[in-house]
Structures are given as C-alpha cells and as structure tokens.
Amino acid sequence: MDTTFDAILIGAGHNALACALHLSAKGWKVGVFEQAAQPGGAVRSGEYTLPGFRHDWAAMNMSLFAGSQFFKAYGPALMARGLELAPTTHPFASVFPDGRWLGISTDPAQTRARIAAFSVTDAATWDKLVAAFPADANHLFALLGSPMKMRAFASIFWRIWRERGLSGAQDLGKFLLSSPRAWLEQTFASPHLRATLGAWGLHLDYAPDVAGGALFPYLEGMAGQAFGMVLAKGGAGRVTEALVAEIEARGGVVECSAPVARILHSGGTATGVELADGRKLVARKAVIAGVAPKGLMQLTGGTGDAGFDGAMQGFRHAPGTMMIHLAMDALPPWAAGTDLHRFAYVHLAPSLDQMARTYSQAQAGLLPNEPALVVGQATVVDPSRAPDGKHVLWLQVRMVPGTILGDAAGQIGATDWAEAAGPMAERALDILDRYAPGVRGHILGQRIVSPAELEADNPNLVGGDQICGSHHLSQHFIYRPVRGHTDGSTPIRNLHLTGAAVWPGAGTGAGPGWLLAQKLAGA
Ligand SMILES: Cc1cc2nc3c(=O)[nH]c(=O)nc-3n(C[C@H](O)[C@H](O)[C@H](O)COP(=O)(O)OP(=O)(O)OC[C@H]3O[C@@H](n4cnc5c(N)ncnc54)[C@H](O)[C@@H]3O)c2cc1C
After folding, report:
1. Which of 128, 165, 195, 322 holds its CA 20 to 30 A away from the CA of 454?
2. Average pLDDT in the 20-48 region?
3. Which of 428, 433, 416, 453 is nearest to 369 (CA)?
4. What does DSSP assign to residue 225?
C-alpha cells in the first residue's frame, strides 16, 4: 500500500471526494481516508429497514449537486460510472391542520392557481418574483458560487450597483440581512404560503426570526418553481459510488474504516497524517481535512495561532436532526388528498410561529412538543428504491436538541438519546398520523436515527447538527468558518479545511471542495 501522496484527504464526504477527483484529474496522486465503513458521509444510501428498501441515510435532495459547478465539470464522467439523476417537476408541498395543502410545481400555471386559491394578490406577487428570478439568480448564484474574499464580495455588489443603481444594491443588502419572517410577511399575505416557503429556512438553521435567513425560502421557492427537485436514481449514495469509482480509475486511493488520528506537522507545515492503526502517511503538497472545526483542533493539537484556534473551538453548531426511515406498503394516506403523492417533500410545518417555537425549544435543550417534519417521498420520484408497489419514506424531525435537558411537552423523562429516541419518534409519527390517519398501519419496517447516532456515525455532525455549523450571519459569507479563512486555509502551511463548515457551507453542492481543488490545482 502506498504511503506517500501529493494530497491526503481526511474523510470521504462528498466535498473531499469532489476535491480529490479534481486534483486527480490535474495529475495529483490522492489518498482519501475515511473512518466509517462506507464512504460518503451524509451522502450515502443503504437498506436500513428491510431487504429491497433503499434509504438515503441523510441527504435525499441532490438538486444542489446537480446544479453545481462541480457537476458541470464532472457530471459526464460520473454518469459514465453509472450515476443517473431522477428529476421531479413536483418538488415540495406543505399540508396544514385545516386540511388544505399548497405545493410548488414547475408548471407556473399550476403553482399560480394553487397560490391564488389562498390569495390572488400573492399569486400576482409570485408571478413577479418568478419573472425577476433569472436576473436575480445570476447575482445570487455568483455570490454563492465564488470564493468568499472581500474583493469578490465587493465586486459582485459593484456589478449590481452598476446594473440597478445604489438603491438596487441596498435592497439586495437588506434582503440578505432579513429574517425569513421579515421577508415573507412583507412579501406575501397568505400565512399558508409564508409557512410553505418558511419551512426551507429550517433546513439550514434559519428559524423564521433569524436574521440572514430570507435567502433560503426565496431561493428554494424560486428554484423549485424553475427547476423542480433532483434525486439520484437508486439513492444519494450512487453519487458517492460514482465519485469513488472515478477517483480510483484515475489512480487515487479511497480507504474506509481508516480513521485519521493525527495530522502530522512540524515547523508550521503539514507533512502527512497518522491513522488510528499507527500507519504514517506522507503528503507532499497538501493535507485536506474534511472535518468539523473542533475535529481539526483535535487532529492538529492546535495550530499555534491563538486567534484561529479560539475561533475553531468557538464554532457554533445548530440544533440536531432526528431521522426516521420507513419501509411502507403504501404512501401516507394524506387526509388533504392524494395529490400530495406527487411531491418529493411534504413539509408538516404549519406556521411560522410553530417553527419559531420549535426552534427556541430545541435551542433551549428541550424536545419540541410539535417538531416540524419533512416527509421525503423518494419512491414517488424514483420507484427503483423499493419493491414493486412499495415505498420508502424519509422523515426528518426538525429540530431537536443534541443534548436533552427536558421535554417541552412534559412527557418524555429520558435525557439521553438512547432512551428518548423511541418516544420522540412516536411523537413524530403521531404528528404524521394527524395528517395521514392510519399511516402506522402501512409501516413494514423502521429505523430511527437519533442525533447522537448521526454524530457517532459521522463526527462532523456534532450533536446531530446536519449542516456542520450554524449558517447564521456570524458564521456565513466572509465569516465561514472564520474571517480570513473562507478558502479553507489554516495557519499551518499545506493544511486545508474543507466540507460544510467552510464557505459556501452545507448542502450537497460540493462548493467548498470544488473551490479548494481549483485553488490548489491553479483552476
Ligand atoms: C440528516 C441529513 C439530511 C440532509 N439532507 C440534505 C438534503 O436533502 N440536501 C442537501 O443538499 N443537503 C442535505 N444535508 C446536508 C449535506 O448532506 C451535508 O452538508 C454534506 O453532505 C456535508 O458534506 P461534507 O463533504 O462536508 O462531509 P460529510 O458528509 O459530513 O462527511 C465527512 C466525512 O468525514 C469523515 N471523518 C470525520 N472525521 C474523520 C477522521 N478523523 N478520519 C477519517 N474520516 C473522518 C466522516 O466519517 C464523514 O464520512 C443533510 C445532512 C444530514 C445530516
């Protein structure tokens, strides 16, 4: 086995794999070392309930990956390795306690009619936003896809200034600082539409009242309308399988069950890593750590730069997620109607107030009395994941505390996840049953994954934080993961950080890995 590489990557998350692939393509000899038995981190699939039922362990929505600059460059190579995309024109819907539902589909007339049933004014506003989206998206995607240097940030604002004047640039600035609630309440009259879009904030730790979160309900709404949603056929894990196959075909090494115990550095330069089994590996050009900031501190023993190390230790994580994987003999019998069987995601997050309450309970360490649920109906889009006529459901329980201090409903006494996971999952299924009466009768098998189990599986998900670090403004844009290091650089020469903790952050868009690979390889 080789012990010398140009680049050693720690962890086989999709960012590290994307980075490794680009470096391999540029002639670097890469070695990726992953502590888990399988590669992929949060982009993995398996038969977690019953044979023949294939579930996404974590990420299910691969739209960010399919729309990424990395995919533009390497999509054809990955498709040649067996990756197939499974798009849907019905990305998401929300269902409400009054028995109504609202969904976004790519057919503008369909979405418009659904919104108009709640508010004619909102339907007209939606039309205006949709018409303006292509021009606005240019600026926003340029911002989200660029290296986050002050100069790049300023040049994007300068372009907007030239195009739309000072007031246009200021309006964009105000929007980027707004909370989801501020923007949704200023823009739409219907509480149903506000909640339908506001639920997207929760995916990224943006509860309705958190400044800086307006971008996500807006982008997901507009992108859902314009592009729908994309899954990977056969499960998100197919992306990882294709990435690994392509890296190996180019001579790279991806080794699993190989935890990195230490990053070796001397005289301020990283020289390699030591694996938990004692093997020492040499990195000629770069050690790339796809780990959480606190993990970086453990592996290096500190970089020697007090400011950087303090910021890494103080990096804040979001509350956790609990996953429930279900093997089903039918889709949920939605009381609001079988139209909901067309949608990839159904959110059970009925109002901005309910989401705000849930978030503050989770932040305070309480199991929320009515968590928001994301019901992923993957087999609606990709029936290959279950036997004929059967289904898999992917239930995300948002949000729950990593460390339990109590129960907002005063019913669950347990404060460790090993005991609390069962009753909390029952609470989530009770909520699902309210909207889909009798749903439990369709469950053939289930697997509950608590935040503690998410973290045990992948140490980057601290406390079950699915985004590896809050995206609140103090840790976003020029502050992700810390000012001066948005490109993944560290005070140790040749040591780089990648993954969701680094700009542009979480999600399956491979941005941190792609930007770093381009920087290291000289594009
Ligand atoms: C439950 C859940 C649902 C999600 N849903 C979606 C979704 O639908 N769509 C979306 O876009 N995003 C989603 N996300 C977010 C997205 O999946 C993640 O932000 C993204 O996949 C993180 O990728 P990463 O490259 O940072 O690494 P990760 O996926 O976090 O992987 C890091 C890898 O490093 C390994 N590692 C850590 N330390 C070491 C070590 N010392 N030695 C060796 N290996 C190590 C870990 O085992 C892991 O495999 C979800 C996340 C979760 C958890």
Report:
1. 195
2. 98
3. 428
4. H
Instruction: Determine the atom of ligand 1 nearest the C-alpha atom of 260.
Output: 42
Give the C-alpha separation, 209 to 214, whole Å. 9
What integer pLDDT is reported at residue 447 of this predicted model? 98
pLDDT tens-digit map of 364-381: 999 999 999 999 999 999
Our answer on whether the CB atom of 223 is closer than 6 Å to any ligand 1 atom is: no
Question: pLDDT band at residue 228, thresholds of 50, 70 and 90?
Answer: very high
Among protein residues, the one whose CA lies closest to atom 10 of ligand 1? 507
Pairing of strands 92-95, 45-46: unpaired
Does the beta carbon of 259 lie inside 6 Å of ligand 1?
A: yes
User: Which atom from ligand 1 is nearest to the alpha carbon of 457?
Assistant: 47
Render pLDDT for 3-28 as a digit per residue (tens, 0 to 9).
999 999 999 999 999 999 999 999 99
State the pLDDT at residue 140.
84
Q: What angle do CA 341, 64, 76 make, to 5 degrees?
A: 105
CB 345 within 8 A of CB 91: yes
Mutate to test the pocket of ligand 1, among 448, 458, 502 (most ligand atoms within 8 A of CB): 458
Residue 332: pLDDT over 80: yes
In a domain, 95, yes or no: no
Q: Which residues contact 408 (CB under 8 A, 6 or more apart)?
A: 361, 366, 367, 368, 369
The whole-angstrom separation of Cα 300 and Cα 521 is 24
User: How remote is the CA of residue 75 from the centroid of ligand 1, in Å?
Assistant: 20
pTM over 0.90: yes
Residues 6+ apart with CB under 8 A from 471: 204, 205, 206, 212, 318, 480, 505, 506
- Closest C-alpha among 339, 383, 446, 399 to residue 95: 339
Among 231, 172, 177, 179, residue whose Cα is nearest residue 206: 179
Closest C-alpha residue for ligand 1 atom 51:
466
User: Residue 165 pLDDT more than 90?
Assistant: no
Return the ligand 1 atom nearest residue 498 CA. 26
Closest ligand 1 atom, CA of 36?
47
For residue 43, the enclosing domain spans 4-49+57-84+235-315+470-521
How much is the average pLDDT of 332-346? 98
Number of H helices, E strands in the chain: 17, 20
Q: How many domains does the chain have?
A: 3
Report the distance separating Cα 504 and Cα 14, nearest Å.
14
Residue of minimum CA distance from atom 39 in ligand 1: 11
Largest CA distance in the chain: 67
Are 69 and 120 contained in the same domain?
A: no
Answer whether residue 334 is part of any domain: yes
Q: How far is CA 117 from CA 106, 191, 339, 342, 348, in A?
A: 17, 13, 15, 19, 20
* 98 domain residue, yes or no: no
**Both 399 and 438 in a single domain?**
yes
